[in-house]
């Protein structure tokens, strides 16, 4: 093993710059599929979906009541003592057709039947009251779901009402994950040598892929061997739309990934201008995008949370989302490193009607404690400092209501 001098190389983007760079550089090869309505929710429509029917086809009652002729009320409420069902009025139930000549509905709450005689308590205000005319609920050729719109549960019902049986959607992308490193053993191992680490990032990625609507293939752990890494990358490029490779992108004596990608592909980002996860990278191999993520779980998490999410949103033609923000008072001192921005993981809580942020040092606590505590980020530019009492903007990874009663 030979000493490898650390040298900063190439473009080192900030977090937001990296997200935009990925989207600009990836030529997404999207596939499409047709799904029935049972499987349409949360899918992204590949085209405008137009109604095949109008709804209603005939005038229908908006609510339960009686159908009447508005002309009978031109002089106020008439004497209805001798009115008969089927002549002067009909019962009009919600969603049922109101046939001619009846053109107005009176709420059932505004009528009484006393000894079988109809009594109307309130005069209808307008002709057509409480009646949905033809096409008022779904119009002719109306677009029910727009192209690139994520289909919601209510829209599934709308599509069914519009005569739609199936929809064309963007198919889930295929992601291949390649964990590398002689020091790793599978998380499924019953026991492992004391000089090994458990490879768990694949399971974290699997969970993120479920959130991001992507299909994941996890490769076996690849040892630190250039030819075996190349073989894995080649296989991944044949089956996946996006490749993630874990570790091997830093400057260890056996970190071969970027060397290989540099000679066999194209490295566009060698490392980032922010921490944690500074040794994330972006390359192309056999015309497939390769997102390199740092081995330590904390850095790997942020790469999946920010960069993979941005790729997935772009793949589905969705607007890049931002985390909800709150103004917080910091309860600590902190100075970002001089050579990189820092995405500071913090615990945010509310006290005396103000939001506060406490620092969590990933190197000073177990990962379990970190994950239990941190619920947001403060993004600090390189070389800048925070001092106790400063007010800054923090990003939430939980809903705001979840931090209201924490301390």
UniProtKB/TrEMBL annotation:
InterPro entries linked: MoaB/Mog-like_dom_sf, MoaB/Mog_dom, MoeA-like, MoeA_C_domain_IV_sf, MoeA_linker/N, MoeA_linker/N_sf
Task: Tell me its EC number(s), please.
Answer: 2.10.1.1
Annotated MoaB/Mog domain residues: 176-314
The protein, known as:
Molybdopterin molybdenumtransferase
* Keywords assigned by UniProt, alphabetized: Magnesium, Metal-binding, Molybdenum, Molybdenum cofactor biosynthesis, Transferase
Q: Which residues form a coiled coil?
A: none
Q: Does the keyword Transferase apply?
A: yes
Q: Which family does it belong to?
A: Belongs to the MoeA family.
Described function: Catalyzes the insertion of molybdate into adenylated molybdopterin with the concomitant release of AMP.
Organism taxonomic ancestry: Bacteria, Bacillati, Bacillota, Negativicutes, Selenomonadales
The UniProt catalytic activity note for this protein reads: adenylyl-molybdopterin + molybdate = Mo-molybdopterin + AMP + H(+)
Q: In which pathway does it act?
A: Cofactor biosynthesis; molybdopterin biosynthesis
Cofactor(s) needed: Mg(2+)
Give the source's domain of life in one word: Bacteria
């Amino acid at each position: 093993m030979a000493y490898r001098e650390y040298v900063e190389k190439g473009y080192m983007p900030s977090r937001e710059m990296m997200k935009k760079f990925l989207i600009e550089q990836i030529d997404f090869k999207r596939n499409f599929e047709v799904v029935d309505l049972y499987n349409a929710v949360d899918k992204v429509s590949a085209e405008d979906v137009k109604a095949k029917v109008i709804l209603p086809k005939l005038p229908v009652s908006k609510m339960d009541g009686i159908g009447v002729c508005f002309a009978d009320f031109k002089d106020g409420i008439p004497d209805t003592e001798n009115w008969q069902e089927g002549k002067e009025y009909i019962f009009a139930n919600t969603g049922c057709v109101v046939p001619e000549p009846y053109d107005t509905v009176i709420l059932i709450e505004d009528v009484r039947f006393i000894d079988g005689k109809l009594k109307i308590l309130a005069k209808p205000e307008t002709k057509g009251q409480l009646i949905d005319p033809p096409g008022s609920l779904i119009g002719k050729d109306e677009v029910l779901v727009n192209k690139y719109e994520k289909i919601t549960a209510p829209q599934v019902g709308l599509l069914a009402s519009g005569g739609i049986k199936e929809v064309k959607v963007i198919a889930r992308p295929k992601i291949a994950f390649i964990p590398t490193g002689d020091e790793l053993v599978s998380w499924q191992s019953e026991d492992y040598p004391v000089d090994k680490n458990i490879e768990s990032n694949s399971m974290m990625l699997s969970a993120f892929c479920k959130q991001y609507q992507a299909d994941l293939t996890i490769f076996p752990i690849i040892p630190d061997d250039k030819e075996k890494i190349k073989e894995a990358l080649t296989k991944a490029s044949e089956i996946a739309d996006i490749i993630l490779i874990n570790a091997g992108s830093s400057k260890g004596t056996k970190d071969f990934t970027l060397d290989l990608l540099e000679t066999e592909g194209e490295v566009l980002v060698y490392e980032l201008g922010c921490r944690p996860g500074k040794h994330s990278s972006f390359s192309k191999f056999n015309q497939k995008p390769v997102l390199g993520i740092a081995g330590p779980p904390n850095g790997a998490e942020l790469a999946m949370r920010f960069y993979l999410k941005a790729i997935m949103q772009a793949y589905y033609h969705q607007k890049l989302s931002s985390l909800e923000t709150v103004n917080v008072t910091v309860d600590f001192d902190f100075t970002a490193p001089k050579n990189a921005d820092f995405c500071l993981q913090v615990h945010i809580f509310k006290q005396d009607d103000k939001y506060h942020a406490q620092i969590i040092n990933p190197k000073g606590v177990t990962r379990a404690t970190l994950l239990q505590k941190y619920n947001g980020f403060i993004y600090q530019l390189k070389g800048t400092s925070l001092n106790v009492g400063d007010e800054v903007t923090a990003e939430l990874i939980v809903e705001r209501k979840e931090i209201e009663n924490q301390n």
